[in-house]
Design a protein that fits this description.
Strand content: 5-15%
Order of helices and strands: HHHHHEEHHHHHEHEHEE
Distance between the termini: 44 Å
Shape: globular
CATH architecture of the largest domain: Orthogonal Bundle
Bound molecules: S-adenosylmethionine
Number of domains: 3
Structural class: alpha/beta
Length: 236
Protein backbone atom coordinates (compact mmCIF):
# COMPACT_ATOMS: atom_id res chain seq x y z
CA UNK A 1 0.00 0.00 0.00
CA UNK A 2 2.90 2.35 -0.77
CA UNK A 3 3.69 2.93 2.91
CA UNK A 4 0.24 4.36 3.63
CA UNK A 5 -1.58 3.43 6.78
CA UNK A 6 -4.67 1.23 6.33
CA UNK A 7 -6.87 4.10 7.53
CA UNK A 8 -5.31 6.50 5.02
CA UNK A 9 -5.82 4.02 2.19
CA UNK A 10 -9.39 3.36 3.40
CA UNK A 11 -10.08 7.10 3.41
CA UNK A 12 -9.03 7.26 -0.24
CA UNK A 13 -11.42 4.44 -1.09
CA UNK A 14 -14.42 6.34 0.24
CA UNK A 15 -13.62 9.77 -1.15
CA UNK A 16 -15.84 10.84 -4.02
CA UNK A 17 -13.99 14.00 -4.97
CA UNK A 18 -11.05 12.33 -6.73
CA UNK A 19 -13.14 10.84 -9.58
CA UNK A 20 -15.21 14.01 -9.84
CA UNK A 21 -12.15 16.27 -10.00
CA UNK A 22 -10.60 14.07 -12.68
CA UNK A 23 -13.84 14.07 -14.67
CA UNK A 24 -14.30 17.82 -14.56
CA UNK A 25 -10.62 18.35 -15.41
CA UNK A 26 -10.97 16.12 -18.46
CA UNK A 27 -14.22 17.78 -19.57
CA UNK A 28 -12.88 21.33 -19.07
CA UNK A 29 -9.77 20.56 -21.14
CA UNK A 30 -7.44 21.06 -18.17
CA UNK A 31 -5.77 17.65 -18.50
CA UNK A 32 -5.30 18.11 -22.24
CA UNK A 33 -3.93 21.64 -21.71
CA UNK A 34 -1.18 20.22 -19.49
CA UNK A 35 -0.38 17.51 -22.01
CA UNK A 36 3.22 16.44 -21.49
CA UNK A 37 4.42 19.91 -20.46
CA UNK A 38 5.27 21.48 -17.12
CA UNK A 39 2.73 24.26 -16.80
CA UNK A 40 1.40 26.77 -14.34
CA UNK A 41 -2.22 26.15 -13.28
CA UNK A 42 -2.78 29.87 -13.87
CA UNK A 43 -1.74 29.58 -17.53
CA UNK A 44 -3.89 26.48 -17.92
CA UNK A 45 -6.85 28.34 -16.39
CA UNK A 46 -6.39 31.15 -18.94
CA UNK A 47 -6.16 28.63 -21.79
CA UNK A 48 -9.31 26.80 -20.71
CA UNK A 49 -11.47 29.76 -19.60
CA UNK A 50 -11.62 28.45 -16.06
CA UNK A 51 -11.06 30.13 -12.71
CA UNK A 52 -7.33 30.37 -11.82
CA UNK A 53 -7.78 29.86 -8.08
CA UNK A 54 -10.10 26.91 -8.59
CA UNK A 55 -7.75 25.28 -11.12
CA UNK A 56 -4.79 25.73 -8.76
CA UNK A 57 -6.75 24.00 -5.98
CA UNK A 58 -7.91 21.19 -8.27
CA UNK A 59 -4.35 20.56 -9.47
CA UNK A 60 -2.97 20.54 -5.91
CA UNK A 61 -5.72 18.16 -4.81
CA UNK A 62 -5.01 15.80 -7.70
CA UNK A 63 -1.28 16.05 -6.98
CA UNK A 64 -2.10 14.55 -3.59
CA UNK A 65 -3.60 11.59 -5.49
CA UNK A 66 -0.64 11.15 -7.85
CA UNK A 67 -2.31 12.59 -10.97
CA UNK A 68 -0.03 15.64 -11.04
CA UNK A 69 3.47 16.21 -9.67
CA UNK A 70 5.04 19.51 -8.65
CA UNK A 71 7.84 20.59 -10.97
CA UNK A 72 9.07 23.66 -9.01
CA UNK A 73 8.48 27.39 -9.55
CA UNK A 74 4.73 26.91 -9.27
CA UNK A 75 4.67 24.50 -12.22
CA UNK A 76 2.98 21.10 -12.34
CA UNK A 77 3.06 18.21 -14.79
CA UNK A 78 0.93 15.12 -15.30
CA UNK A 79 2.44 11.96 -13.84
CA UNK A 80 2.52 8.68 -15.78
CA UNK A 81 -0.82 7.89 -14.14
CA UNK A 82 -2.24 11.32 -14.99
CA UNK A 83 -1.22 10.93 -18.63
CA UNK A 84 -3.69 8.02 -18.88
CA UNK A 85 -6.34 10.77 -19.07
CA UNK A 86 -4.79 12.36 -22.19
CA UNK A 87 -6.45 11.95 -25.57
CA UNK A 88 -4.56 9.58 -27.81
CA UNK A 89 -2.40 8.19 -25.01
CA UNK A 90 -1.64 4.55 -25.79
CA UNK A 91 -3.42 2.44 -23.18
CA UNK A 92 -5.12 5.58 -21.86
CA UNK A 93 -8.61 5.62 -20.39
CA UNK A 94 -9.79 9.15 -21.06
CA UNK A 95 -12.99 7.72 -22.54
CA UNK A 96 -13.95 6.48 -19.08
CA UNK A 97 -13.27 9.78 -17.37
CA UNK A 98 -15.94 12.19 -18.57
CA UNK A 99 -18.66 13.46 -16.27
CA UNK A 100 -22.31 12.57 -16.79
CA UNK A 101 -24.31 14.34 -14.11
CA UNK A 102 -27.26 11.96 -14.20
CA UNK A 103 -25.04 9.15 -12.94
CA UNK A 104 -24.78 10.90 -9.59
CA UNK A 105 -28.55 10.73 -9.09
CA UNK A 106 -28.74 7.08 -10.15
CA UNK A 107 -25.90 6.12 -7.83
CA UNK A 108 -27.61 7.92 -4.97
CA UNK A 109 -30.48 5.45 -5.42
CA UNK A 110 -28.19 2.40 -5.63
CA UNK A 111 -29.30 1.05 -2.21
CA UNK A 112 -32.58 0.26 -4.00
CA UNK A 113 -30.62 -2.10 -6.27
CA UNK A 114 -28.92 -3.67 -3.29
CA UNK A 115 -32.27 -4.34 -1.63
CA UNK A 116 -34.29 -5.42 -4.65
CA UNK A 117 -31.91 -6.19 -7.52
CA UNK A 118 -33.87 -3.71 -9.67
CA UNK A 119 -32.33 -0.77 -11.53
CA UNK A 120 -31.61 2.40 -9.54
CA UNK A 121 -32.06 4.84 -12.42
CA UNK A 122 -35.90 4.84 -12.51
CA UNK A 123 -36.03 5.47 -8.76
CA UNK A 124 -34.84 9.03 -9.40
CA UNK A 125 -35.84 9.63 -13.01
CA UNK A 126 -39.15 7.76 -13.20
CA UNK A 127 -38.22 5.84 -16.34
CA UNK A 128 -35.52 3.53 -17.62
CA UNK A 129 -32.18 4.88 -18.75
CA UNK A 130 -32.63 4.25 -22.48
CA UNK A 131 -36.12 5.79 -22.51
CA UNK A 132 -34.83 8.78 -20.55
CA UNK A 133 -32.02 9.34 -23.06
CA UNK A 134 -34.55 9.52 -25.89
CA UNK A 135 -36.24 12.43 -24.07
CA UNK A 136 -32.91 14.18 -23.33
CA UNK A 137 -31.01 14.54 -26.60
CA UNK A 138 -28.07 16.54 -25.22
CA UNK A 139 -27.38 13.87 -22.58
CA UNK A 140 -27.88 11.19 -25.24
CA UNK A 141 -25.27 12.89 -27.42
CA UNK A 142 -22.88 13.07 -24.47
CA UNK A 143 -23.50 9.43 -23.60
CA UNK A 144 -22.98 8.26 -27.17
CA UNK A 145 -19.79 10.27 -27.64
CA UNK A 146 -18.52 9.02 -24.27
CA UNK A 147 -19.23 5.45 -25.34
CA UNK A 148 -17.36 6.08 -28.56
CA UNK A 149 -14.33 7.47 -26.73
CA UNK A 150 -14.40 4.70 -24.15
CA UNK A 151 -14.75 1.96 -26.72
CA UNK A 152 -12.02 3.52 -28.89
CA UNK A 153 -9.62 3.40 -26.00
CA UNK A 154 -10.38 -0.29 -25.44
CA UNK A 155 -10.31 -1.48 -29.05
CA UNK A 156 -6.53 -1.50 -29.47
CA UNK A 157 -6.48 -4.23 -26.85
CA UNK A 158 -9.82 -5.90 -27.55
CA UNK A 159 -9.89 -6.22 -31.36
CA UNK A 160 -6.91 -8.58 -31.72
CA UNK A 161 -8.34 -10.85 -29.00
CA UNK A 162 -11.27 -11.96 -31.16
CA UNK A 163 -11.13 -14.40 -34.08
CA UNK A 164 -12.99 -12.15 -36.53
CA UNK A 165 -14.08 -13.69 -39.85
CA UNK A 166 -12.20 -12.57 -42.97
CA UNK A 167 -15.45 -12.18 -44.87
CA UNK A 168 -19.20 -12.36 -44.31
CA UNK A 169 -21.43 -10.19 -42.16
CA UNK A 170 -20.70 -9.03 -38.64
CA UNK A 171 -23.68 -7.70 -36.63
CA UNK A 172 -23.02 -5.49 -33.60
CA UNK A 173 -26.10 -5.64 -31.35
CA UNK A 174 -26.29 -2.43 -29.33
CA UNK A 175 -23.38 -1.24 -31.47
CA UNK A 176 -23.89 2.44 -30.62
CA UNK A 177 -22.47 4.81 -33.20
CA UNK A 178 -20.41 2.06 -34.73
CA UNK A 179 -16.83 2.63 -33.66
CA UNK A 180 -16.12 -1.09 -33.30
CA UNK A 181 -17.57 -1.83 -36.72
CA UNK A 182 -15.62 0.99 -38.37
CA UNK A 183 -12.37 -0.31 -36.93
CA UNK A 184 -13.24 -3.88 -37.86
CA UNK A 185 -14.13 -3.07 -41.47
CA UNK A 186 -10.85 -1.18 -41.86
CA UNK A 187 -9.11 -4.51 -41.29
CA UNK A 188 -11.62 -6.75 -43.12
CA UNK A 189 -12.24 -5.23 -46.53
CA UNK A 190 -14.29 -8.27 -47.56
CA UNK A 191 -16.71 -8.07 -44.64
CA UNK A 192 -20.07 -6.37 -44.35
CA UNK A 193 -21.19 -4.73 -41.14
CA UNK A 194 -24.56 -4.18 -39.52
CA UNK A 195 -25.01 -1.90 -36.52
CA UNK A 196 -28.20 -2.64 -34.61
CA UNK A 197 -29.23 0.03 -32.14
CA UNK A 198 -32.01 2.39 -31.06
CA UNK A 199 -33.32 4.85 -33.66
CA UNK A 200 -32.02 8.00 -31.91
CA UNK A 201 -28.52 6.50 -31.82
CA UNK A 202 -28.29 5.58 -35.48
CA UNK A 203 -30.24 8.51 -36.92
CA UNK A 204 -28.52 11.32 -38.76
CA UNK A 205 -26.14 11.42 -41.69
CA UNK A 206 -23.40 8.81 -41.58
CA UNK A 207 -20.79 8.72 -44.31
CA UNK A 208 -20.35 5.36 -45.95
CA UNK A 209 -23.33 3.75 -44.20
CA UNK A 210 -26.79 2.94 -45.46
CA UNK A 211 -29.92 2.45 -43.40
CA UNK A 212 -32.30 -0.50 -43.49
CA UNK A 213 -35.66 -1.05 -41.86
CA UNK A 214 -35.83 -2.76 -38.52
CA UNK A 215 -37.58 -6.10 -38.11
CA UNK A 216 -40.21 -4.29 -36.05
CA UNK A 217 -40.75 -1.80 -38.84
CA UNK A 218 -40.23 1.03 -36.39
CA UNK A 219 -36.94 2.45 -37.54
CA UNK A 220 -35.83 4.72 -40.33
CA UNK A 221 -36.53 3.45 -43.77
CA UNK A 222 -34.54 1.23 -45.96
CA UNK A 223 -31.52 2.03 -47.98
CA UNK A 224 -28.92 -0.68 -48.23
CA UNK A 225 -25.42 -0.87 -49.56
CA UNK A 226 -23.30 -3.79 -50.56
CA UNK A 227 -20.77 -3.40 -47.79
CA UNK A 228 -22.18 -1.43 -44.93
CA UNK A 229 -25.61 -0.99 -43.56
CA UNK A 230 -27.07 0.28 -40.38
CA UNK A 231 -30.17 -1.00 -38.70
CA UNK A 232 -32.26 0.41 -35.93
CA UNK A 233 -34.85 -1.11 -33.67
CA UNK A 234 -36.85 -0.21 -30.64
CA UNK A 235 -36.56 -3.48 -28.82
CA UNK A 236 -33.80 -6.02 -28.31
C1 LIG B 1 -23.33 0.52 -23.24
S1 LIG B 1 -23.79 1.08 -24.84
C2 LIG B 1 -22.57 0.26 -25.85
C3 LIG B 1 -22.39 0.89 -27.21
C4 LIG B 1 -21.29 0.23 -28.08
N1 LIG B 1 -21.44 -1.21 -28.18
C5 LIG B 1 -19.93 0.57 -27.53
O1 LIG B 1 -19.28 -0.30 -26.94
O2 LIG B 1 -19.49 1.72 -27.68
C6 LIG B 1 -25.24 0.06 -25.11
C7 LIG B 1 -25.94 0.34 -26.43
O3 LIG B 1 -27.11 -0.47 -26.44
C8 LIG B 1 -28.13 0.28 -27.09
N2 LIG B 1 -29.46 -0.25 -26.72
C9 LIG B 1 -30.07 -0.21 -25.51
N3 LIG B 1 -31.30 -0.76 -25.58
C10 LIG B 1 -31.48 -1.16 -26.87
C11 LIG B 1 -32.54 -1.80 -27.57
N4 LIG B 1 -33.68 -2.10 -26.94
N5 LIG B 1 -32.40 -2.08 -28.89
C12 LIG B 1 -31.23 -1.75 -29.53
N6 LIG B 1 -30.17 -1.15 -28.92
C13 LIG B 1 -30.30 -0.85 -27.60
C14 LIG B 1 -27.92 1.67 -26.59
O4 LIG B 1 -28.52 2.66 -27.39
C15 LIG B 1 -26.38 1.77 -26.57
O5 LIG B 1 -25.89 2.31 -27.80
Amino acid sequence: MDGQSPASRAAQLIDYWTPLLIRMSVDAGIIEAFGREERSPLDVAAATSTNPDAVARVVRALASRGVFAEAGDGLFRLTVVGRCFLEGERGGIVGLATFKGYEIHAWAEAPHTLRTGGPAFPEHFGQGFWEWLVDHPSFAAHFNSTMRRRTSSLLDVALPLMDWPDEGTVVDIGGGNGVLMERLLERRAGSRGVIFDLPHVVEGPRDGWARVSSPTGSSSSGVTSSRRCLQATTSM
